[in-house]
Amino acid sequence: MKLWVFVIAMSGTFAVGGCTRDASGISQMTRAADPNVKVPIAGYQSVSSGNTSYMPVTPKGWEELNRRVGPKS
């Protein structure tokens, strides 16, 4: 009988413990509202920097392409 009481008590403890609030982010939330906190300046970077242009080009002759990829003799 005492084992069932222990099991029910532990189950209730774990169930209620799972509903508690995580307090690890409270300090971060209060710092976000503080106007005296030093914040690094956000730099500008273009969204298209580092892109390669893939514009269409004119086709090359098949003889030149075959010479480039064929075995060197």
Instruction: Summarize the main sheet.
Output: none
Low-confidence stretches: none
- Cα separation of the termini: 92 Å
The Cα radius of gyration reads 34 Å
Structural class: mainly alpha
Tell me the strand percentage band.
Answer: under 5%
Question: Roughly what is the average pLDDT, rounded to an integer?
Answer: 77
How many strand units?
A: 0
Oligomeric nature of the chains: single chain
Give the SSE order as H and E letters.
Answer: HHH
What portion of residues is helical? 40-55%
The shape, in one word, is elongated
The DSSP helix count reads: 3
Q: In words, what does this structure look like?
A:
With 73 residues, the chain is mainly alpha-helical. The protein has helices at 2-17, 26-32, 62-69. The longest helix has 16 residues, at 2-17. It is elongated and about 90 Å long. The termini are far apart. The model has no long low-confidence stretch (mean pLDDT 77).
State the main characteristics.
73 residues; mainly alpha; 3 helices; elongated
Write the layout of secondary structure elements.
Layout: H1 2-17, H2 26-32, H3 62-69
In short:
The chain is mainly alpha-helical and 73 residues long.
